[in-house]
Amino acid sequence: MARWNPCRIMLSLPLLVSAGSLMAIEPVDVPKKRPLDPNEKVCETWHVLGSRLAVRRVCASRAEWADRQRRERDIIDRTQTQLCVTNPATVCAARLNAAIGAGLCRRRAAR
Fold it and tell me: Is 75 left (phi over 0), alpha (psi -120 to 50) or beta?
């Protein structure tokens, strides 16, 4: 009577798996995604910094979101690739002015 040998089963397992992968596979038709409408309104919920509960809902068209993302990416790229400046105050002021100019943040009103 032949003894059950777990090593023999483990050694033959890769052969069974590779034989199964050689079988012909029929291509499956994947439905194409419809193009997204750039004028479609999309809303996002933003969490307000400094608060655990406050949220702000921001709505814009897909084209506006793409434009905003492009502007933010440009500012990040510009900030990361600019040359070193010896006065850090002017660097921070320049970055703040660039962000304000791009509409990413607003100046605080004087009290």
Answer: alpha
DSSP per residue over 14-57, as a string? HHHHHHHHTS-----PPPPPPPPPTT-EEEEEEEPTT-SS-EEE
Per-chain mean pLDDT for the chain: 74
The pair of three-digit structure tokens given for residue 16, joined into one six-digit string: 């069974």
Which pair of structure tokens corresponds to residue 62?
Answer: 């897909």
Residue 52 · residue 60 · CB < 8 Å: no
pTM confidence score: 0.46
For the chain, the domains span: 41-101
